[in-house]
Design a protein that fits this description.
The complex is a heterotrimer.
Chain A: H1 2-27, E1 39-45, H2 52-65, E2 69-75, H3 81-90, E3 97-101, H4 105-110, H5 118-124, E4 140-141, E5 144-145, E6 147-153, E7 156-160, H6 161-167, H7 178-188, E8 201-204, H8 210-219, H9 239-253, E9 279-284, H10 289-293, E10 300-303, E11 316-322, H11 329-339, H12 342-348, H13 357-362, H14 371-376, H15 392-409, H16 415-436
Parallel strand pairs in A: 1-2, 1-3, 8-9
Antiparallel strand pairs in A: 3-11, 4-5, 6-11, 7-9, 7-10
Helix pairs in contact in A: 8-9, 15-16
Chain B: H1 11-24, H2 26-46, E1 49-50, E2 58-59, H3 63-69, H4 72-102, H5 110-118, H6 125-135, H7 142-149, H8 164-171, H9 177-188, H10 192-200, H11 205-232, H12 237-243, H13 254-264, H14 268-296
Antiparallel strand pairs in B: 1-2
Helix pairs in contact in B: 4-9, 4-11, 6-12, 9-11, 11-14, 13-14
Chain C: H1 15-43, H2 65-73, H3 76-107, H4 113-122, H5 128-141, H6 149-152, H7 160-170, H8 175-183, H9 188-199, H10 201-216, H11 220-225, H12 234-239, H13 249-274
Helix pairs in contact in C: 1-13, 2-13, 3-7, 3-10, 7-10, 10-13
Classes of the chains: A alpha/beta, B mainly alpha, C mainly alpha.
C-alpha cells in the first residue's frame, strides 16, 4: 500500500516537474529567433526598485519607434552588479549595452570591453554638445568617447529650513566657507534635555565615504595623488589633506556638530538624523533627494558645498556603452543614442538630473532653487582621483577608508599619523601593482 | 525478533557489494564530473594565473600564493574567520540542541514554538542582518536601550572594532533554528521503547539525557559539527551587509575578502588562490574531526566505519 | 509501517514540569520574537519614521501600503512562480538522488568508500564566488544561461549536505532489519524502498524542507544564471530594495516577511507529516 502511494507520488511530481520545466526555456531565448526579424538587445543596469520605471518607459517608447527591436532589461541591484557583469564578461556573455560607474571606465575600456563610439555617433548623428559640461569626460579614454552619460550627481548641502527658522539662523549661501559651516553648525547643535548628548545636530556628514571625501581635499587645495599617478606619499599626507581630514574629524569629535556614524557598511554612514528632522544640514549627493522632498519633517533647501582655499566639487557618474561582444552593433548603437539622448532625457528628468542641456533648461531645472544647485556645481568640478591611476580602487581607496575609520572612531587619533600610514599603505600597494604590469 | 548470525562474507559477494555501492552513488558521481569537478579544477588552475575577468588569464605560477603569505589582510581574514568559527560552532551545537530538547515533547501548541524558533533562520539574509544592525545601533537601538535601563552603557557594537565580532556572534543565536530542526529529526529517530525501558528501571530526565539521548544523537551531533565548521568558515552575508569587513578590517571574513578581490579589485587569480587555501584549512579540520568519529559517534546500524 | 508514535508518554512532561517547560518556552520565544516584532512594526512605518530616535514602537497609523506597494512595484507574482518551480524541482531532485547516494554510502562497503565520502564533503569547501565563474562559463557554452536548468538539473545529481544528513540516518537503522528482509527474499532495492525510506521519514522531511528553503533563499546562483527579469526569483526581487545608493527599508522588511511565509507554512504543516518517529517493535514487512 505504502509502496504504491510512494511511487505514484513520485511519478506525479516528476510529471509536474517536466511540464513545469518545459515552460521557462521556451519563454525567452537569449539569442534572437532566427529569421523572425526581431533583434533582441540586452541592456544591463545597476538601477533598482522604483528606479527601473524610467528605464521601462524609455524602452517602451524606443520599441514603439523601432518595431524590429526588442530590448531586454537586465537589472541587478547594489554591489552585486559587478559580480554578475564580470562573470558574464568572463564568459563573453555580457549584455549588449552595459552600464558602469565612472571609476570603472578606464580599466574596462583599456581591457577592450567597450567599443569606441566614433562610428556610432557619426551614424546616429548624435551631437555630443547636447550634454551639460563635464558629463562627457568620465566616458572618455585617451580622448575617445566610449560611454555616454546616464546619470550623475555632484555634492551639495541639504538644509532643513524649519530648524534654521526655529533657531533664527540665516540660510547658508553659495560661496560660504568652512568657517561659516562650522559657525552655522554650532549654532544649530543643541542639547535640549541636558543629558550631555546633542539632540539636534548641525550637519550630518557621510562618515567614511571615500569618493565623497575628495571634495574636502580639493577644497583645501590639496590632492590625494601626484599628477603622474605614481605617488601618494607627499600628497595623501600633505598639509592640505591633513587639514581637510582634521577639520572633518573635528566636526565629529571636537565640535560634535555631526552625529556619529550609524552603519559603516552603508554608503554614507547610515545616519538618519537629517531624515528625522534632528540635523539641520546634510552633505551628500542627490540620490536621496526624492525621499527627502516627501519627508514632512523637512522643509528643504539646497546649497553648494562651502569652500576653503578653493571652491571645488566632484562628479559621480554612471554611463552606458556598447559591449565589444555585442552582435547587433548598429542596433545597440541606435538604442544607446536614444537612451542617453534628448528624448529619453525628458523621461529621466523626473527621476534624476538629465544629462542633456536643453532638457535641463527647458524644464526649468537649471533655474530651480534646488535642482539648479546640483547642475550649477558642474562648473566647479575637479578631476576625480581615479583618473590619475587605474589602480585607485585597490590601492588608495582601502587605505583612505582605513584612515577615515581610524580618525572618526577614535577621538584621540593622530590625524597626521593616520594619513601618513595611509599614504604608505597605498604607496606600497601601488608599487606592487606597477611592478606586476612591467 | 529473529536473531541473525552474521555470516562471513565471501569475495564475490564483496565485489557485488562494491558494485552496488557504486551503482547507488552513481547519480552523485555523474554530477561530480559534469558540474563540480570541472569548475573546481578550473579554479585551481586560475589560482596560478592573473585574471581580471575582462581579458584572458595570464599564467604566473605560484606568485599568488607567495603574495598571500606576505599579505597582512590574508592573515587578518584567517584570524577573523577562525576566531568567529571557534566560538560560533560550539554555541550553535549546544544552543540548537537545547532548543530541540525544549520543543521536543508534543505538548499543546508546540508546533507554534518550533516555528517561531525556525522562522528567523530562514529569513532572507539581508533582512536578518538589517534587523540586527538596528537593534545594535549604539544610540537608538533596542539592545543599548535595554542595557541603559539596567544602568549599563552599551558598547558601540558594530562601530567599535573591538566589538564587531562579538556583535556578529551575538546576533547569530537568532539562526539556531536550522540546527534545531536537524536535531529534532535526530531525536525523533530514537525509538520510544528505550525511554520506556529506562523509566521502568527508574531513570530520570537527566540520566535519560546522558545515557540514551546523547549517545544515540551522536550521529546528528557529528553531522551538525562538520557542517557547521564547513559553512561557518564560509560566512559571507552577515559580514557583507552588516559591516563590509570593517571597521578597520575587524570583520574581514575570508569569503568576503575573496569576493572583494574577485569582483571589486578584479584579481580573480588571487581570489582563487585564497579560496584554495581556505579549502585546505577546512579539509584538514574536517578530516581531523572525522578521525575522532570512532571514539564518540555511535551508529545504531553498525557495520559502518 | 511504524504504527505507534514514538512520543512515549515518558517524554511528555506533566504537572509542575509541564508548567516549567511552558515557562522556559515562553522566555525563549520572547527572545526570538523581540527582533521579529521590531521587524514587523518597522515594516509598517513610513520611511522617515524608520529610525526615529527615540524609537517608535508601533506606527500610527500603520502603513499597510508598504506591503502593497513593495509587492506590486516589481512583478513579485512572477518571481514567486519562478521560485516555486525551482524550489519544488529541487525537492524532487534532491529526494530522488540524495536518498540513493546516501544509502550507498551507509549500507555498502567498498574500497575507497571513505575517500569518496571525504571528496563528497570536499565539494562543500570551495566558496561559491570562486566556482561560479567557471560554472557560468560552462553553462554559457551549452546555452543554459538565462534558463532554470543550471538551478534545477544539478539537484538531480545529489547535494553533499543532504547526502551526509541522510547517510547519518541510514547508518542508524539496524542491520538486523535488512538481514531479516533478505531472509524473506527481498532484494536490495526493496529493502531500500520498504525499510530504509519509511524509517527515515523525519530525515526525508528535513531534507525536503531544507532543499525548499535553500532554493527559495538562494541568491548568488539566480543572480548569475538568470538575466531576463521575467525569470527572476524572489530573492533577486528583494535585492532591488537594497540598492547601492539607497536602501528602501520599509519595502525591504515587508517583502522579506512575505517571502518567508511559504517556508514557515511548509514547516508548520510538515511537522504533522513527520512527527511519527520509529518504533522497532511495530515493524512489519
Amino acid at each position: 500500500m505504502k509502496q504504491r502511494i510512494h511511487v505514484s507520488v513520485v511519478l506525479s511530481v516528476v510529471v509536474l516537474l517536466i511540464t513545469a520545466c518545459a515552460a521557462p526555456p521556451a519563454a525567452a531565448p537569449t539569442a534572437a529567433p532566427q529569421g523572425s526579424g526581431t533583434t533582441v538587445l540586452r541592456v544591463g543596469t545597476g538601477d533598482s526598485g522604483e528606479g527601473l520605471t524610467p528605464h521601462q518607459q524609455i524602452i517602451q517608447n524606443f520599441e514603439d519607434q523601432n518595431k524590429d527591436l526588442l530590448v531586454q532589461l537586465e537589472p541587478v541591484a547594489g554591489r552585486d552588479y559587478y559580480a554578475r557583469l564580470l562573470t558574464q564578461l568572463a564568459a563573453k556573455a555580457a549584455p549588449d549595452v552595459m552600464q558602469i560607474g565612472d571609476d570603472a571606465v578606464p580599466s574596462f575600456v583599456k581591457k577592450g570591453a567597450f567599443v569606441s563610439l566614433d562610428d556610432c555617433l557619426k551614424q546616429g548623428g548624435v551631437d555630443l554638445s547636447i550634454y551639460l559640461p563635464g558629463l562627457l569626460q568620465p566616458g572618455q579614454v585617451n580622448g575617445k568617447q566610449y560611454l555616454l552619460p546616464k546619470d550623475y550627481s555632484t555634492l551639495a548641502v541639504y538644509y532643513n529650513k524649519k530648524l534654521f527658522d526655529a533657531a533664527g539662523v540665516p540660510y547658508p549661501k553659495e560661496g560660504w566657507t568652512w568657517n561659516d559651516l562650522l559657525d552655522v553648525a554650532q549654532r544649530l547643535t543643541k542639547d535640549t534635555n541636558n543629558d550631555g548628548q546633542p539632540d539636534q545636530w548641525g550637519i550630518q556628514l557621510p562618515a567614511t565615504w571615500t569618493t565623497g571625501f575628495e571634495y574636502w581635499v580639493a577644497a583645501a587645495g590639496g590632492r590625494l595623488i601626484s599628477q603622474d599617478g605614481k605617488s601618494f606619499v607627499g600628497y595623501m599626507d600633505s598639509p592640505e589633506t591633513i587639514r581637510a581630514v582634521q577639520f572633518y574629524a573635528d566636526l565629529y569629535n571636537k565640535y560634535k556638530v555631526a552625529p556619529p556614524p550609524a552603519d559603516l557598511a552603508q554608503f554614507g554612514g547610515g545616519n538618519s538624523e537629517f531624515d528625522n528632522g534632528q540635523a539641520a544640514m546634510r552633505l551628500f549627493g542627490r540620490w536621496p533627494q526624492s525621499g527627502i522632498k516627501k519627508n514632512p519633517n523637512i522643509d528643504l533647501g539646497v546649497v553648494a558645498p562651502p569652500q576653503d582655499k578653493v571652491r571645488a566639487n566632484v562628479l559621480f557618474w554612471g554611463g552606458f556603452g556598447v559591449a565589444t561582444t555585442a552582435k547587433a552593433t548598429e542596433a545597440a548603437c541606435k538604442f544607446l543614442s536614444y537612451y542617453t539622448g534628448e528624448q529619453a532625457a525628458k523621461v529621466w528628468k523626473d527621476w534624476a538630473l538629465p544629462a542633456v542641456k536643453s532638457v535641463a533648461e527647458s524644464s526649468g531645472l537649471t533655474k530651480d532653487p534646488i535642482e539648479g544647485v546640483w547642475i550649477g556645481e558642474l562648473n566647479h568640478l575637479v578631476p576625480r582621483a581615479y583618473t590619475f591611476t587605474p589602480y585607485w580602487n585597490e590601492t588608495a581607496d582601502p587605505a583612505l577608508r582605513k584612515a577615515l575609520e581610524t580618525v572618526l572612531l577614535d577621538p584621540k587619533a593622530d590625524v597626521a599619523a593616520a594619513l601618513r600610514q595611509a599614504a604608505q599603505d597605498a604607496q606600497r600597494a601601488l608599487d606592487e601593482q606597477l611592478a606586476k604590469t612591467k | 525478533m529473529t536473531a541473525i548470525i552474521a555470516m562471513p562474507r565471501l569475495s564475490p559477494s564483496r565485489r557485488r557489494e562494491e558494485l552496488t555501492f557504486y551503482l547507488f552513488i552513481s547519480p552523485w558521481l555523474i554530477g561530480l564530473v559534469l558540474f563540480t569537478l570541472g569548475p573546481m579544477l578550473i579554479s585551481l588552475l586560475v589560482s596560478f594565473t592573473e585574471w581580471d575577468l575582462l581579458s584572458d588569464p595570464a599564467w604566473i605560477g605560484t606568485e599568488n600564493y607567495r603574495r598571500m603569505l606576505a599579505d597582512p589582510l590574508f592573515w587578518q581574514a584567517l584570524k577573523v574567520t577562525a576566531t568567529y568559527t571557534a566560538v560560533y560552532v560550539p554555541c550553535e551545537l549546544i544552543g540548537g540542541l537545547a532548543l530541540a530538547l525544549l520543543v521536543r515533547p508534543k505538548l499543546r501548541g508546540i508546533r507554534v514554538f518550533r516555528t517561531i524558533f525556525y522562522l528567523p533562520s530562514v529569513l532572507a539574509g539581508v533582512a536578518f542582518v538589517v534587523v540586527w544592525i538596528w537593534l545594535l545601533n549604539p544610540r537608538g537601538g533596542l539592545v543599548n536601550l535595554l542595557l541603559a535601563q539596567v544602568g549599563i552603557t552599551g558598547p558601540r557594537w558594530l562601530l567599535d572594532p573591538n566589538w564587531t565580532l562579538v556583535s556578529l556572534l551575538l546576533m547569530s543565536f537568532w539562526g539556531w533554528g536550522r540546527a534545531m530542526v536537524i536535531y529534532l529529526a535526530g531525536l525523533q529517530s530514537i525509538p520510544g521503547e528505550f525511554y520506556e525501558a529506562s523509566a521502568i528501571d527508574g531513570a530520570g530526565g537527566w540520566r535519560q539525557l546522558r545515557h540514551i539521548t546523547l549517545p544515540l544523537l551522536t550521529p546528528t551531533i557529528f553531522f551538525n559539527l562538520i557542517l557547521s565548521i564547513i559553512s561557518t568558515f564560509q560566512t559571507f552575508t552577515s559580514a557583507f551587509i552588516a559591516t563590509d569587513g570593517g571597521p578597520l578590517d575587524s570583520t574581514l571574513f575570508f569569503v568576503l575578502y575573496i569576493y572583494r578581490k574577485a569582483f571589486q579589485f578584479r584579481d580573480m587569480g588571487y581570489a582563487a588562490a585564497l579560496a584554495w587555501v581556505l579549502f585546505g584549512v577546512v579539509l584538514l579540520l574536517t578530516v581531523l574531526v572525522f578521525r575522532t568519529q570512532r571514539s564518540w559517534v555511535y551508529y545504531g546500524g553498525e557495520r559502518s566505519e | 509501517m511504524s504504527g505507534e508514535t514514538y512520543d512515549s508518554p515518558i517524554l511528555i512532561p506533566r504537572g509542575r514540569r509541564r508548567v516549567a517547560r511552558y515557562g522556559i518556552l515562553i522566555l525563549a520565544t520572547g527572545l526570538f520574537l523581540l527582533p521579529l516584532c521590531w521587524m514587523v512594526s518597522s515594516s509598517l512605518k513610513p520611511e522617515y519614521q524608520m529610525f526615529a530616535s527615540p524609537p517608535v514602537w508601533w506606527p500610527s497609523p500603520p502603513r499597510w501600503a508598504n506591503y502593497t506597494e513593495a509587492l506590486t512595484q516589481l512583478p513579485f507574482g512572477q518571481y514567486a512562480v519562478n521560485t516555486s518551480i525551482i524550489a519544488l524541482a529541487s525537492i524532487v531532485g534532491n529526494l530522488l538522488s540524495c536518498t540513493l547516494v546516501a544509502y550507498g554510502f551507509a549500507r555498502f562497503r567498498a574500497r575507497g568508500r571513505n575517500a569518496w565520502f571525504i571528496i563528497l564533503l570536499a565539494t562543500l569547501m570551495l566558496p561559491y564566488p570562486v566556482t561560479m565563474v567557471p560554472l557560468f562559463i560552462i553553462f554559457a557554452k551549452i546555452g543554459w544561461v538565462n534558463t532554470f536548468w543550471p538551478l534545477v538539473v544539478p539537484t538531480f545529481f545529489g547535494n553533499a549536505f543532504y547526502i551526509f544528513l541522510l547517510r547519518q540516518f541510514f547508518l542508524q537503522i539496524p542491520q538486523e532489519l535488512d538481514d531479516a528482509a533478505t531472509l524473506d527474499g527481498a532484494n536490495t532495492l526493496q529493502i531500500f524502498l520498504q525499510i530504509a525510506l519509511p524509517l527515515s521519514k523525519p530525515a526525508l522531511a528535513t531534507v525536503a524542507i531544507f532543499a525548499f528553503q535553500a532554493s527559495w533563499n538562494d541568491f548568488l546562483a539566480p543572480l548569475i544564471f538568470l538575466q531576463d527579469q521575467s525569470k527572476y526569483t524572489l530573492m533577486l526581487g528583494l535585492s532591488f530594495y537594497r540598492g547601492s545608493l539607497q536602501i528602501n527599508w520599509a519595502y525591504l522588511l515587508s517583502t522579506s516577511l512575505v517571502i518567508v511565509l511559504p517556508i514557515v507554512l511548509l514547516y508548520f504543516v510538515a511537522q504533522r507529516l513527520f512527527t511519527e518517529g520509529i518504533s522497532l517493535s511495530g515493524l512489519k514487512l
